[in-house]
Design brief:
Two copies of one chain form a homodimer.
Chain A lengths: L1 E5 L3 H13 L4 E6 L11 H5 L14 H8 L2 E4 L1 E7 L4 E6 L5 E5 L2 E4 L3 E3 L12 E2 L4 H11 L4 E5 L3 H12 L3 E6 L10 H13 L3 E4 L3 E6 L5 E5 L4 E4 L1 E4 L3 E3 L2 H5 L10 E2 L11 E3 L4 E4 L6 E2 L4 H15 L13 E5 L2 E7 L2 H7 L4 E5 L14 E7 L6 E8 L3 H13 L4 H6 L14 H14 L4 E2 L1 H5 L7 E4 L3 H5 L7 E2 L18 E4 L4 H12 L4 E4 L2 H14 L10
Helix pairs in contact in A: 1-8, 6-16
Keywords (chains A, B): FAD, Flavoprotein, Oxidoreductase, Redox-active center
Protein name (chains A, B): Coenzyme A disulfide reductase
GO molecular function (chains A, B): CoA-disulfide reductase (NADPH) activity
Amino acid sequence: MKVVIIGAVAGGASAAARARRLDESAEIVLIERGADPSFANCGMPYYIGGEIESREKLIVTSAGMLHDRYRLDVRVRQEALRIDRQAKTVRVRRLENGAEYDESYDKLILSPGAAPIRPELPGIDHPKVYTLRNLDDADLLHAATMGAKRAVIVGGGFIGVEMAENLVRRGVETTLIERNDQILTPWDAEMVAPAAAALRSAGVTLKLGAEAEAFEPQDDGGVTVALKSGEQLSADFVVMCIGVRPENALAKAAGLAIGERGGIRVDETMRTDDPDIYAVGDAVETFDSVTGKPTQIPLAGPANRQGRIAADNCFGRESRYRGTQGTAIVGACGVTAAMTGLSEKACRRLGVAFEKVYVHPASNAGYYPGAEGMTLKLVFDPENGRVLGAQGVGGKGVDKRIDVLAMALQAGMTVYDLEESELCYAPQYGSAKDPVNMLGFVAAGLLRGDHPVEHAHRLLDCELGDSFVLDVRSPGEHAAGAVPGATNINIDELRERLGELPKDRRIVAYCKVGMRGYLATRLLRQHGFDAVNLSGGFTKYERFVAARAEATPKMAPSGR
Amino acid sequence: MKVVIIGAVAGGASAAARARRLDESAEIVLIERGADPSFANCGMPYYIGGEIESREKLIVTSAGMLHDRYRLDVRVRQEALRIDRQAKTVRVRRLENGAEYDESYDKLILSPGAAPIRPELPGIDHPKVYTLRNLDDADLLHAATMGAKRAVIVGGGFIGVEMAENLVRRGVETTLIERNDQILTPWDAEMVAPAAAALRSAGVTLKLGAEAEAFEPQDDGGVTVALKSGEQLSADFVVMCIGVRPENALAKAAGLAIGERGGIRVDETMRTDDPDIYAVGDAVETFDSVTGKPTQIPLAGPANRQGRIAADNCFGRESRYRGTQGTAIVGACGVTAAMTGLSEKACRRLGVAFEKVYVHPASNAGYYPGAEGMTLKLVFDPENGRVLGAQGVGGKGVDKRIDVLAMALQAGMTVYDLEESELCYAPQYGSAKDPVNMLGFVAAGLLRGDHPVEHAHRLLDCELGDSFVLDVRSPGEHAAGAVPGATNINIDELRERLGELPKDRRIVAYCKVGMRGYLATRLLRQHGFDAVNLSGGFTKYERFVAARAEATPKMAPSGR
């Protein structure tokens, strides 16, 4: 058996190692266009920023080691030019000297990855307009930051945000421009407002709703970024981080099926429509494990799993990919944003019925030093309570809760299961009622009809008609900032002051994070009032106000 | 409806708050023997040690606040003396003046907790022999640590370990004695060896297999602890942490059913055998959610959930407790030990068939600064791969992985599901193949027969007959320490040196943590050798050697 693998990072490397473990006698050839197989591409921004000091740390493994340990035939700086599916050969070019040869295969695994998008804008070919894909790029950017004063990052996705954190760490005055009205667009806007705030606090100039339209050379060797708004940003260099495009040219030319958004089509065994050709990683169109719909998610975890599965199937092992649930995490200057499954906006886009709740718990017991706050959002099926997705933002412990919720999603668990989850508790690590339990309580209570909720964006959009807005916090909290027009009655006095409330209007009760509002809702409903709780309280309301302030006026609010 | 709740901490407080949310008109009376309702008992060791500076932080809520917000009638410093089930009254004594009265109830919820065990040893009533249950105890211990030079802690469970950490933090020379041959007995011995080592590194004198038999007063007001071994330990004070006993006197006197180990018997609704009396928290016998067998687990999380469920059922809501899975965590001088579900020894004790694997991953990508090591152990069903339990020990990220595995256990997931779990990955937070995935790969590979494993304790117990022990690490690693009698062939040279290996003997291959050993096993089996991988590698082997060295000679090894 001879397996040829094109692309030696993440998915390709995983496939190759798995192939060897499955078959000592197989011939395994890895063709890699770059200089290094299996480098740590997720670490590159941190090498550029100096958090990872040594470049060598990014080299996960060498071609020599892959040969010694796995007897892999690794050919770096070689490029696959075309596939002859009839002859079952790949045409390969040695990049050093341009020489070409044909390599035959029994099974072919494509792991070409995805290329950073470089839009066809005037001046895009300026040498100081960088992208970040491989170690060569990282070297260029590492050098560019030395002595640089100002940089512009175009695109506020994962890489854009990580680059912004790392450029300010290097002392580079950094402007991040993002076309949308929020950074990190897989998340819902209100959930990433704290990440945006953290970038700003760290010194990043963040411009939302801003789009580059041209790059002009400066006399000093720098580049001026012209925005559609007419603004001009002067920079020593620019990093384009507006996303990636699957490297499908080889597959396309070979006549393999390609998805609508450019990903190579594969089935659950990672096989393309050619029975001897598999494809894995950022280049493929896979499917969303929640909705079953096609998706493209360029992340390392899924790529590794897919590589393993493709190798299994090459060697006749039954092994199926279960889809991608979109678990992702990013650090932004001390704030962590993490998510799994469907966001609210994904539900809307796909027409999936959902309900949502927010909680604002602490990472661990509030009485133990060092507890940090977080916001969690749970999106769930309004009929049966099944978890559809979760998002978190805040300090320590966000990654833990989203991982726990990722398991709940994978297992098809419901909000009722989250109520009963038994998680680690000691005061340094969590709370006797963990944030995940709290999500369960709030969501299950909502489904049981115990405490209907209302959402801040509906208050902001004036969609709540003549509702009576009731602030049940203390007068001091109320005085420090409140929803306009709200009446303040401290929860502790509410039972004595029921006479001040209207019986013929809906009452939207709120407190700081939702707990007292929940109690007020329970109390008022039992006294015959039509009361609902403002989900996530004033904290969430302020978050929405902030997200709206970020949004450019030209964009319509995304209200429900 | 009138609900009387006896005991206002954790379970009782949760029941009371839930009861009010369910019924505004109910009369809710909380009888609490101590001075404070709902204090943070899990925080007390850290207050004594000074990590929590202010005593006020331990007061979760006051009686006044519980009245104002929840209209609870909280009666502190009052003790329930007996229950008249016919009359449906409780006899209560005011501790200040001894006055007694009867309080009637419609529903009664017992949340009396569990009392620290004070064994009947000579001198146990010495005033400097403390236990730790409530804030009065914490005050005494807090005062005792001031100016104290030496302390003895009896018992190496959760509280004993936490007290040890906190006394050395206060600069007190601390000896911890534990009757068993390991601390933290819910864990398997080899899994808590690093926690014991951390205590010792921090200055704790740890004596395993040591039992106190008497306490003698010293002239200076201190106390001498006489051990069964004849050793005498001099101390300014002693803390007894040998466990707790359910407070069942009230229930017993009322004729309610009591379990074999003293816990009040309840059904899934938390109801005792009296239809109007419920019981929750540390005082009850509940059931293990994995085995379905009776168990007593005095932890705050389950107590809170049970309180909520008891209140639900008092008010006619269908709500059932799903059992306790034994998720627990403890910090020990920088090392975290966490677990969920069944340990290996619990499986043996209960006769549950199991298989087990170990991995030694890092908390996050090794190339990112600050990654910390951990050991994870997974116990699973050898037939269908269902997760039965997990244990972790090490630095940061242990709590996260055990929480993730607690969800897997709750959901009935298998090792095959763990292979496919999609968890948060960025280099600061995890690895593209998360430690949880690694557990899945190793366990599933074992069940598929890809790489049979052997266990270190069997090597140590010479149960492996004439097996050929093969060290596939580098010569340098081998020279620095190896399994006695092992032959060293670097994995990278193994294919060329197959001739040096026996075809007629079993080969036990090992490396540092199991990864190269796995590869060697795959390689050798394909070449016709009967090879197995030493689970967890030399790291785990050394852990077993250390755990054995700790154990007293009188105890038989717990070998399989």
